[in-house]
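1st attempt posting a full record on here, be nice pls
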Amino acid sequence: QLKNNANGDKWNNIVVIYNGNTIAKNLSIANNSWKVVVNDQKAGTEVLDVINDGNVSIEALSVMVLYDEKV
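the predicted structure (as tokens):
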């Protein structure tokens, strides 16, 4: 996890999750408003999804990148 605007941009905290398992996995993270920019289908800087409850499902053999913004 990169914290506190490490790059000086609007992404406050960045979480990178790698699932090396052959099945999807669920993970609990801090209960913030997380914006997903990388999932098993697409990668970039465009927001693909928003997770507000702290529960993340990561597809098998994939990476997920999420960020929150400083309030």
